[in-house]
Amino acid sequence: MQSVKQAAAEFLAQKRIAVTGVSRNPAGHGSNAVYKRLRERGYEVFAVNPNADQVEGDPAYPSIGAIPGGVGAVVIGTKPDRADAAVQECVDLGIGHVWMHRAFGKGSVCDSATELGRRHGITVIDGGCPLMFEPTADGAHKVMKTIFTLTGKVPRKVS
Q: Which of 16, 126, 138, 157 might form a disulfide with 1, Cβ 3.0–4.6 angstroms?
């Protein structure tokens, strides 16, 4: 087990990150906010949406495996029922870091997907948001991190 802060630092040390669930209609989609912030902070970020050729002005990929050159980490921003398939794809591709986005409600967190990833040696952060941690954080996300840590939506430890 490691602290979520350490796991977040390792995740954000990856410079090629896929974000699943990025929408063609960005209003109100957490995946789009994560995608844009990572791109703004200099990450090589890839949108995964099997129903779009382009999102946020960039190419979209139908799957994680379709991304040329692969990635080191994946943010899952889809409904929880799609997380198992995304984590299985990460297992198959040898990706070592997965973050299941969660702020309000259940978010993208899926217990079976978390267990699947961890069984295969993937560090899975099952809650919170990459934008709550440095170097991608802003003031609002830092406040949310404090609140959501207290309410259990941001884990304190991960493996």
A: 157
Written as six digits, the tokens of 83 are: 């997380």
Domain enclosing residue 103, as ranges: 2-158
Distance of CA 55 to the CA centre of its chain: 17
| Contact status, residue 159 vs residue 1, Cβ threshold 8 Å | yes
pLDDT tens digit sequence for 8-57: 999 999 999 999 999 887 666 678 999 999 999 999 999 999 999 999 89
Strand order in the sheet with 123-126: 54-55, 58-61, 44-48, 16-20, 73-76, 97-100, 123-126
C-alpha span between 113 and 117 (Å, rounded): 6
pTM of the model: 0.94
